[in-house]
User: Fold this.
Amino acid sequence: MNDEDSLSPLLKTWRHQPREVPDFNRSVWTRVQAESTSEESGPLGRLLHFSLTGARWATPIAASLILLLSLAAGSGAALAYESLTHNDRMATEYARSIDPLQMSVSHSRP
Amino acid sequence: MKRWLWLFCLALVVGFAAFAVTQRCMRHALPDEMTWLREEFAVTAAQADAIEQLNTAYDPVCAEHCRRIGAARHRLQSLLAAPNTPAADLADAQNTWQSLCAECTTATRAHLEAVAAQMSPEQGKRYLDLVGPKLTRREPGKPFGLR
Assistant:
């Protein structure tokens, strides 16, 4: 109990006085610069830095290109498919128009 | 990563939608049969006129066959649905059906060959090879179109 009573005023009187370090600011900036240089200097660091900064503008363009490509691929595939099967489908339609058996089946369907 | 997965799914949807829309547009733009014959089999104007005459002559034959097929099918369906159909009546209806199918198939085949005969020999053969297999192939004893 007595120790605590004497500790409290002692702590109140205590002041921390750090030792002044000469060139503190300059040394901090020197270390920051050195860290940054070491990150960029390695091949992986350079690659990551490039991909991260590049992705900022490349992502929307890549996404738009992918969507445009899938649109073109879908339309192109349909055109190719239709072109390949055109004669077959026309022959089927033509046969249906002259074959009474096929006609009667299509008429009898609900 | 998740964003790229979304993009991949969206790209798939866009691709399929583009395929469906293009295919639909193309199917709506199909030419009529006579235009197709002219373009595909290099039919001349004189040949096209002769084919049109054959078609005009064949139309009433085809319509009559359609009418008889409808009547024969209706009769056969009624007999099959009835609980106590005499076997002789059913056999008669089936025979009528079979002979009618054979008659229609023969008439259609003859019309097809008559049209092919108007074309050049190579185009006529190509026409028969392309359209012939599309005609109804009747299985003996199986009433076509009955469900």
Residues 68 and 105 of chain A are 43 Å apart (CA to CA). Chain A touches chain B at residues 59, 63, 66-67, 69-75, 77-79, 81-82, 87-105, 107-108 (CB under 8 Å). The mean pLDDT of chain A is 78.
